[in-house]
């Protein structure tokens, strides 16, 4: 479960990147977070994950306040950032062991998780190679595996399908659905509105730091024409802003 209550973040005195938003994302749900570039999506995700601090408001992961107990809160989730270009001089296996060390995953369990996930994403043969030699898609896979190495109950994914081949993208979407159906939480941002429409139980649309809508796709359609696509609704809502 993720809870945001009256969260605000400003980078300057003249404007707010995120303006007093509240979201409640329960267990058992895939929650999509969509908005134009510069809408406040990544800033929101960085506050949820504790990378940056909110100016005001409260953020909780599984009931743990990220500002009061940051380490305990961060143990609750796995995070895939919007860029996989990191730790490039490490071998794939070194990076995964590094992530497993951070989350204190025991030796037997980490071996099991590394084998399962690397086989799933068909990257096992590249684990002994340096990440700098990987393609963008392979880097995305290794970051995803690292985020899931400790089997967290909350998945926070910022544009997770970017660079993935169709098969890997399909596998990840399947895993997201299975994870949510098992009573866990999946929160992800995406620019691919078709994916959000097909995959999400609920979604939020953010623009100019403000939540324009939060709820089911059916609820969103009820506010517009029944036969309109999410793309048309999204463009209409954000253009009005």
TrEMBL record:
Domain of life: Bacteria
The keyword Transport is annotated on this UniProt entry: yes
GO molecular function annotation: ATP binding
Keywords: ATP-binding, Nucleotide-binding, Transport
InterPro entries, alphabetized: AAA+_ATPase (IPR003593), ABC_transporter-like_ATP-bd (IPR003439), ABC_transporter-like_CS (IPR017871), ABC_Transporter_VariousFunc (IPR051782), P-loop_NTPase (IPR027417)
A Pfam family assignment: ABC_tran
Gene3D superfamilies linked to this entry: P-loop containing nucleotide triphosphate hydrolases
Domain ABC transporter: 2-233
The protein's name: ABC transporter ATP-binding protein
């Amino acid at each position: 479960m993720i809870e945001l209550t009256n969260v605000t973040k400003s980078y300057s005195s003249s404007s707010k990147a995120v303006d007093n938003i509240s979201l409640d994302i329960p267990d058992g749900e895939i929650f999509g977070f969509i908005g134009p570039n510069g809408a406040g999506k990544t800033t929101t995700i960085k506050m949820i994950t504790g990378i940056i601090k909110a100016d005001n408001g409260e953020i909780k992961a599984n009931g743990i306040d990220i500002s009061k107990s940051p380490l305990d809160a961060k143990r609750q989730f796995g995070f895939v950032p919007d860029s996989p270009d990191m730790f490039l001089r490490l071998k794939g296996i070194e990076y995964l062991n590094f992530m497993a060390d951070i989350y204190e995953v025991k030796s037997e369990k980490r071996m099991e998780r590394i084998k399962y996930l690397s086989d799933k994403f068909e990257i096992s043969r590249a684990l002994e190679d340096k990440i700098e030699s990987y393609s963008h898609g392979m880097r995305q896979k290794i970051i995803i595996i690292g985020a899931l190495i400790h089997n967290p109950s909350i998945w926070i994914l910022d544009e997770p399908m970017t660079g993935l081949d169709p098969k890997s993208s399909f596998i990840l979407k399947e895993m997201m659905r299975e994870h949510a159906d098992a009573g866990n939480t999946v929160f992800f941002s995406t620019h691919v509105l078709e994916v959000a429409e097909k995959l999400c139980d609920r979604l939020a649309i953010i623009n100019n730091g403000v939540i324009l809508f939060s709820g089911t796709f059916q609820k969103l359609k009820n506010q517009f024409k029944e036969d309109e696509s999410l793309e048309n609704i999204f463009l209409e809502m954000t253009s009005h802003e």
